[in-house]
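The data layer described in this paper is built around a simple, fixed record for each protein. We quote a single record here, exactly as it is kept in our systems:
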Amino acid sequence: ANGTAAAAAAAGSTPLLDPVLGNVAFASCAYGYSFSLRSFAQLYRGVCGDAPKDVLLVDEFARRLWGDVWYYPEERVFRRKPPQLGADRSFVTFILEPLYKLTSAVVGEHPKTIERLLGDDFGIHLKSSAYSQDVKPLLKEVCSKVFGSATGIIDMLVQHVPSSKEATAAKVARLYTGPQDPNSPLIQFMAGCSRTGPLVLHVAKLFPKNDASGFDAYGRIFSGTLRPGDEVRVLGEGFTPDDDEDSGDAVVSNVWLYQARYRVPMAKATAGNLVLVEGLDALVSKTATVVGRHLEEEVHVFRPLSFQTRSVMKIATEPLQPSELPKMVEGLRKINKSYPLAVTRVEESGEHTLLGTGELYLDSIMRDLREMYADIEVKVADPVVAFCETVVETSSLKCFAETPNRKNKVTMIAEPLDKGLAEDIESGKISITWPARKLGTYLVDTYEWDPLAARSVWAFGPAADGPNVLLDDTLAGEVDKALLGAVRDSIVQGFQWGTREGPLCD
């Protein structure tokens, strides 16, 4: 887990996961308990009764319950060396063994013995009817009473997860794609988590309604206040201030606070809250940015969600009854909304394909498609893994394309990227949205690129964080730069398509 966190975190800010730090909890849903080292140490402090607090220092005791630490009962001290070969560490002695003994007592002992054990050692008294339950529900009730159903998780969240007001500024800096101008009123409102500012909501997930007829949008309010009946503008992932095609107007029908399986209706929700919103699903595909309809300041969108895995396993789908094809197509559209990593496509042959991260992921998708979203029987082809090309050496031939009038020619070659550059692009250490000077300086200083080439980067692909680079390697004396610039967007679009689809393997 620490390796995964290190790969995802920025340099110098790797969050270390360690039970001693209190950011790791031990839990069991089956038996209804959770605890951290500190909350377990607090149980021992309770055993001391009215003894002075310095008899058992909870924090110091918790620190000694993990790692290569052994307890010497004769001397009542902890040491880094075991008393004898094969001795149990302190975690086993003080946590696992009591947990095993409690479980074995509930499973195998007489109810009177269990009642006496709970009363004498833990000060817990259950109703007489509780001891007549089967073993599993009884064990769950006992563990919940002893450990507290969520004590460890709650302690960990309180200690290590910052409040919305404290964390919003960092989230804005990491997720907002617009200029981070500290003098911008919108940036100030979002970074300050202001409830009086203009409405800005980041939708991160769509949850289906109970009858799967539609979706409700789940997201965080970064600024402003949201109420049922508000008129809003929904900005899709492809929205930019220069191209507002991926946007639309909507009216908020309902606002809920999500609490596990319950939805608590809200008359209004202010900045910092995670809310469930009805009325936006028609305009949201995966993620979206929602602002007030009459916001005058230029606004950008939040970054789409990034994942460590990609959808590489593909299956072809077909309805058992050809007449039910429209139902399946509508179901696939809902699958695309419901599963963040699902990708649905229509191939040139006309077949509908579905991409997921693996067989289990695709099994879950197909179950929802058959039973919830389409309610039809669907035939599935054998899964195949999607491949894309890579480059191992510089092209031996130049590939070119001519315009219909044969007066212009575009020539391209492929060559491997410098080692580490692809990883930097995917991890976000380098971004195509940087100013050309900043991007060029980074490539020159880090990878010793030629300054002219470093300033001629056109695009990354696929998408803005793809590990491929499109470079304009032409010279002004050899080509008409103005004419080349006129077709730049088309070339970039073709580059994005080629790196995304892998045409040779496809």
